[in-house]
Design a protein that fits this description.
By secondary structure, this protein is mainly β. It is about 0% helix and about 60% strand. The chain is globular and about 45 Å long.
C-alpha cells in the first residue's frame, strides 16, 4: 500500500524508446516528457498524466492496489487511440517494482514487464520490456528516467 505515494508531484522525464521492436534493433528515439502524478484512496491508488511535447500525444496511467492479493494493477492509455491497455500486475520488493501482464504488440502475443526503480526522493526509473518466448528473453523497448521538479 502507498508504494506509489513517492511519485506524487511533477517530474521531468527523459524517454528512450526503441524505434523498432521484435527485430533486434538497438536504435533508440530520445524525447522529453513531463509527468504530473497524484494519489487517491489514501495511497491505494495512483494516477499520472504524461505529455510528450515533441511527439504530439500524451498518456495516462492508473494504478490500484488490491489489498486481498497484496499487489498493484497498472493500466495505460494514450491520447492517440484512447484505448485502455490490458493491465500489468505485481508488487514492490526492496525498492523495485515488477509488474507483468499479457498483451499483443504489432500482432505478436507478448508478455509485458514494467520495472519501477525508486532512486531516492527525487529520481525514479521505469522501463518496459516484452518477451515473445515465454519469459526466456526480454527486449527492453522504453525507458523513462524521471527527475522531480522542485516544489513551487
Amino acid at each position: 500500500m502507498s508504494d506509489f505515494a513517492f511519485f506524487s508531484g511533477t517530474w521531468d522525464v527523459v524517454n528512450r524508446r526503441l524505434r523498432k521492436r521484435h527485430v533486434g534493433s538497438d536504435e533508440w528515439d530520445e524525447f522529453p516528457g513531463v509527468t504530473v502524478a497524484h494519489t487517491f484512496f489514501g495511497g491505494n491508488g495512483s494516477f499520472d498524466e504524461i505529455t510528450f511535447p515533441t511527439k504530439g500525444f500524451s498518456g495516462a496511467t492508473v494504478r490500484s492496489y488490491d489489498t486481498a492479493r497484496a499487489e498493484w494493477s497498472i493500466w495505460w492509455l494514450n491520447s492517440r487511440d484512447g484505448l485502455l491497455q490490458p493491465p500489468v500486475a505485481g508488487r514492490w520488493t526492496d525498492g523495485v517494482g515488477l509488474f507483468y501482464g499479457d498483451d499483443v504488440d504489432e500482432g505478436v502475443a507478448i508478455r509485458c514487464r514494467y520495472t519501477w526503480t525508486r532512486e531516492g526522493d527525487d529520481r525514479a526509473r521505469w522501463d518496459q520490456a516484452f518477451s515473445t518466448d515465454g519469459e526466456q528473453t526480454w527486449e527492453t523497448n522504453w525507458i523513462m528516467e524521471m527527475t522531480r521538479r522542485p516544489a513551487g
